[in-house]
Amino acid sequence: MSPILNISGLHKSFGQVEVLKGIDLTLQQGDVVSLIGSSGSGKTTLLRCVNLLEDFEQGEIELVGETIGYRESSGSQRRRLPEREIARQRAMTGMAFQQFNLFPHMTAVQNVMLGLIKTKRMAKDEARSVAEKWLERVGMEARRDHFPGQLSGGQQQRVAIARAIAMNPQIMLFDEVTSALDPELVAEVLAVVRDLANDGMTMLLVTHEMRFARDVSTKVVFMHQGRIHEEGTSEEMFGAPKTERLQGFLANSQI
Amino acid sequence: MNFSLFLAELWNARMSLINGLGNTVLISVVSVLLGSILGVFIGLVMTYGGWFTRFSVRLYIDFLRGTPVFVLILACFYILSVVGFDLSAFQAGVLALTLFCSSHVGEIVRGALIAIPKGQTEAAKSIGLTFGQTFIYVLLPQALRQILPTWVNTATEIVKASTLLSIIGVVELLLATQQVISRTYLSLEFYFFAGFVYFLLNFVIEQAGRAVERRISVP
Description:
The complex is a heterodimer. Chain A is of the alpha/beta class. Chain A contains nine helices and twelve strands. In chain A, strands 8-9-10-3-11-12 form a six-stranded mixed sheet, sandwiched between helices. By secondary structure, chain B is mainly alpha-helical. In chain B, helix 2 crosses helix 5 (about 90-115), helix 7 (about 130-160) packs antiparallel against helix 9 (about 185-215) and helix 8 runs antiparallel to helix 9.
């Protein structure tokens, strides 16, 4: 069986600064992979490349066997796929953002329905029932007709996760989904993520919640200066970190 | 001031004044409508266009905003006919106001679009929306809410600027009023009356704008 996500030799620069210096990473069905590391190590950029929110100069990302973002054209030249293709491939991944990014002019249920109607071309009634099912799953069914401005940060993030996962993606990407939340709201969001992980959802997540990463991950990847510095199961990584840098990083993080 | 005489003359002149008012409303509605549609495109190009289109549109906006409306109206009427576009006074006037309106709306739309956080576009993309869909369902509805108060202001400016069309002979409310005055010599009364009608028009526009604002406001 082909892996859900296969990243090979990924390079990405912002101008002169190379932020990803050759990343290789594979996720099988049901894998939950946490990316950890200090700020500026390239975790978020890696995630954004997978969702094609960033261009990348070199390397390849395969999603369920399909190369995304670019096509080899004559010779070694590669060409960015047309907008419509990119949009279709993006819909294969679901992304939850640090800042939630709910659409403020739509109610919770409308937020979830938009992609179902426009991308999945569902009828309105069908989209509504799918949206309501997912809002119930994240414990937001009672607030489905509230606007984002009427919800707490944790509630907004749960709606945002429902919006992403309702699209039935092959893989969910979580970009520091609890970093913008007040401490007492973190647990409710992590509970949702954990619930999805237990359900067998394939996930790639960037997180600063080390205890959560340890509990939920099938694999932990420590990034440093644009490279994968160390990777392993969470027992290996948190129990017996091999490199000095990871030991230092973990010592400075609260577990 | 002879009030009963004024009322009698007002009654006599009612048809020409109503025609004038009709023209004022028609000029304003058409100019604001066309100007706004053009303005949205201008704002779009200014926000997402390449450097060359942005530069060209920038010139267009700056030129139109830096020129008095009065001069624009005269230019559309006299200069365009020299180069072969023979527009009626009404058409030339509406064209001038449309261009003027589009430059203002363009700037308003650009301002509203760049004020929307980048995360909105990214979230829309991440659920697979194309650029067009993102614009129509995510960005434009948010931008319009931002735009509305300033846009209403522009609309009232256009209603007031429509009086300038009297100079090229379009019989809108002001010119109709002046024609009545030249017949009756009741200048104070009729100018006051015209002023009051313009005030009413703009008052209605502002109230309507505020009502829409309340309706579409998001908690």
